Amino acid sequence: MLRTHNLGEVDEKLIGKKVTLGGWVDTIREHGKLIFVDLRDRYGKVQSVIHFKNKKFNDFKEIFSKGLRIILIIFVPVTLGFVLLGVPVIRLFFERGAFSADATSATNQALLYYSPRLIALAWCNLFFYCFYSLKDTKTPVKAGIMTMVINIILCSVLVKVMDYKGLALANSLSEITQGILLSYYLKKKFGLIINGINIKFIGKIVCASGIMALAVLAAKKSLIVFFDLSLLPGQFFFVSLCVITGIATYTLSVFLLKLTEAKAIYDTLSEKLKELVNKG
Question: pTM higher than 0.85 for the full model?
Answer without folding.
Answer: no
